[in-house]
């Protein structure tokens, strides 16, 4: 067996095992997160939630497990010369990709995370546009309250910065009349060897089923009731709460709908989009194609 083939198989098996580990860990995280959302919707204080403390400890354990796994598995791979694509010289996507999704905004507030995202999504690097997010740590909540930019006093600065970052993209799409936009957060990840073709297939199915669609999730957290029904082999209708706006597509009409009721802030971003999607032509790819890398979320980190 040649060295290249041996390395390829090792890397593939490592990715599969790591993905399985992350999926099992995320399932518990989703259950805890759902409990928090339900209590938030019922007006219960979050500061006394045992679930919130459990979720924080769970994320710490998850990060340590994945770091330990990555170290052990990476040591098994025989080192080879770097064959990464030069993101500074590539002018077209290095994989099949739908022309409709040629506008991709990546929300980030840190240059290091942006560079990591470019390397991670190097096959799409020519299409990625950096969108400078709103740093929640720099938000003056007293000033924003006087300006009536938010009404929910329980929102953290991190949640407010995340919400405002997405809202400004919606406004930009409406102003520039961009037909379709793919919005990513800087911790989004994908499997490049197959995702372009699967997204193209899913979009074709969605266009055939509902040409006037407005919102299309490319990934959602797995909650108790993840989908209402499957409408095509790769497209489903989301049900109830859809936690996770780290990878989704909006049409111009969808951006107009979300922007119209976006001010003042009343909910966290995920909660707001989920509520609005109940009255929109919203769909989700099935199963998920994107997932979140194991990093500390700025939305949760900034209080």
Structure notes:
The protein has 303 residues and is α/β, with parallel strands linked by helices. It folds into two domains: 3-74; 99-301, Spore Coat Polysaccharide Biosynthesis Protein SpsA, Chain A, CATH 3.90.550. The chain is globular, with a radius of gyration of 20 Å. 31% of the residues are buried. It has helices spanning 3-41, 50-74, 111-120, 141-146, 157-176, 192-209, 252-260, 269-277, 298-301, and strands spanning 104-108, 128-132, 180-185, 188-189, 215-217, 227-232, 235-238, 247-251, 282-285, 291-292. The strands form two sheets. The chain has an eight-stranded mixed beta sheet with strand order 2-1-3-8-5-9-7-6, with helices on both faces. The protein has a two-stranded antiparallel ribbon with strand order 4-10.
Which secondary structure elements does this structure contain, and how are they paired or packed?
Blueprint: H1 3-41, H2 50-74, E1 104-108, H3 111-120, E2 128-132, H4 141-146, H5 157-176, E3 180-185, E4 188-189, H6 192-209, E5 215-217, E6 227-232, E7 235-238, E8 247-251, H7 252-260, H8 269-277, E9 282-285, E10 291-292, H9 298-301
Parallel strand pairs: 1-2, 1-3, 5-9
Antiparallel strand pairs: 3-8, 4-10, 5-8, 6-7, 7-9
């Amino acid at each position: 067996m040649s060295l290249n083939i041996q390395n390829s198989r090792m890397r593939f098996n490592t990715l599969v095992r790591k993905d399985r580990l992350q999926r099992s860990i995320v399932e518990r995280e989703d259950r805890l997160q759902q409990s928090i959302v339900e209590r938030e919707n019922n007006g219960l204080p979050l500061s006394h939630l045992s679930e919130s403390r459990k979720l924080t400890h769970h994320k710490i354990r998850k990060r340590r497990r994945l770091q330990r796994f990555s170290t052990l598995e990476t040591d098994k791979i025989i080192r080879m010369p770097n064959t990464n694509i030069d993101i500074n010289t590539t002018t077209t996507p290095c994989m099949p990709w739908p022309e409709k999704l040629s506008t991709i905004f990546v929300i980030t507030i840190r240059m290091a995370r942006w560079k990591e995202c470019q390397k991670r999504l190097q096959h799409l690097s020519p299409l990625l546009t950096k969108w400078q997010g709103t740093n929640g740590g720099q938000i003056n909540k007293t000033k924003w309250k006087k300006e009536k930019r938010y009404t929910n006093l329980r929102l953290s600065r991190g949640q407010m910065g995340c919400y405002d970052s997405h809202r400004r993209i919606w406004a930009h799409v409406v102003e520039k009349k961009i037909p379709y936009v793919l919005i990513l957060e800087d911790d989004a990840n994908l499997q490049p060897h197959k995702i372009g073709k699967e997204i193209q297939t899913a979009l074709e199915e969605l266009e055939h089923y509902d040409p006037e669609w407005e919102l299309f999730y490319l990934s959602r957290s797995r909650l108790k009731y993840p989908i209402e029904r499957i409408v095509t082999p790769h497209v489903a209708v989301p049900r109830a709460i859809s936690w996770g706006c780290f990878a989704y597509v909006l049409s111009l009409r969808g951006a107009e709908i979300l922007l119209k009721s976006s001010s003042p802030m009343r909910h966290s971003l995920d909660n707001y989009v989920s509520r609005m999607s109940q009255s929109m032509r919203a769909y989700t790819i099935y199963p998920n194609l994107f997932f979140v890398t194991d990093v500390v979320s700025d939305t949760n980190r900034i209080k």
